[in-house]
Amino acid sequence: MTTGAVGVILAAPVIPYLVKRIGALALVLLAVSLVVFALLRLIPGDPAALMAGVDAQPQEVARLRQLLALDRPVAVQYLSFLTRAFSGDLGRSLRSHQPVAQDLLPRFGASLYLALVSLGLALVVGVPAGVLAALRRGSLWDSALMGLSVLGVSMPTFWLALILIGFFSVRLGWLPTSGFEGAQYVILPGLTLAAFSLATIARTARAALIEVLDQDYVRTARAKGLAERLVTGKHALRNALIPLVAVVGLQFGYLLGSSVVTETVFSWPGLGWLLVDAIKNRDLPMVQGAVLVIAAAFAIINLAVELLYAVLDPRIRQP
């Protein structure tokens, strides 16, 4: 970030906006923790008995209830969970017997890597596709690109994953189908996860550029005799890309937190796969910790995007 941008962020009009957004972030995380805690305890039956298994002895169930503090009042349980969570203690996994935070850290890194690769693919392909469609509005290129974007938005993730595996792995034998042992292992899950974001970014870029191209200052630049390349690149495209900031930020949060299906299909060792595994094994502390970390990451990304958007467009931070 440049010195000028830092100065804008630290300027007096931005400070109240920053405080307001951080307060909203804290409320969101508090609400997420409450929802996660409540939903997991609305599971029919005794959570301790479910996690211990059908063959568990009553003594084992009682010990597990005490370990999870399920023998205490619900309000006390939640306050204890909240206090420990905001101090970084997410409890211990019932399966690995390790601290949940310790198990989550490498999985979060794997999910972050996959999300960054997917977002990079979506930006590299989606932005030029949207710009080309806008510049050739109504042409065959426009119809074809927007048709493909609709397909990318509507195609189920698991179906696209199976198609890519069947073609590139089974038929051609070019790429591995699962695991994470090198750069080639991220290609198929990255393409699968990027499809929805790529289509969304392309459609947003097209709509934003079309709107800017119809503005008076663009027509004025053309009337002055400027080359179409300068009109598009210097005047139209720079302003059209501003709305993409919010979309890209939301898509990054989506890629980071909504990769459960992709990670499960490709056995990618990320948060999504860990969450599914924890649910199957009734690992309550791990489920709570994973959901809370995903929600916190999404909220922090959203906050960063809002601050960047406020820097780019001062109208956003007006009271």
Strand % is: under 5%
The CATH topology of the largest domain is what? MetI-like fold
CATH architecture of the largest domain: Orthogonal Bundle
The helical percent reads over 70%
Order of helices and strands: HHHHHHHHHHHHHHH
What does the model show?
The chain has 319 residues and is mostly helical. It has two domains: 21-86, no CATH class; 100-317, MetI-like (MetI-like fold), CATH 1.10.3720.10. The chain is 75% helix and 0% strand. It has 15 helices and no strands. The chain has helices at 3-9, 14-41, 47-52, 58-67, 74-86, 100-135, 140-154, 157-171, 187-213, 216-223, 228-240, 242-257, 260-265, 271-280, 284-312. Residues 8-12 have low confidence and may be disordered.
What descriptive keywords fit this protein?
MetI-like fold, 2 domains, mainly alpha, 319 residues
Task: List strands and helices in order, with pairings.
Elements: H1 3-9, H2 14-41, H3 47-52, H4 58-67, H5 74-86, H6 100-135, H7 140-154, H8 157-171, H9 187-213, H10 216-223, H11 228-240, H12 242-257, H13 260-265, H14 271-280, H15 284-312
Helix pairs in contact: 2-15, 6-7, 6-9, 6-12, 7-9, 8-9, 9-11, 9-12, 10-11, 12-15, 14-15
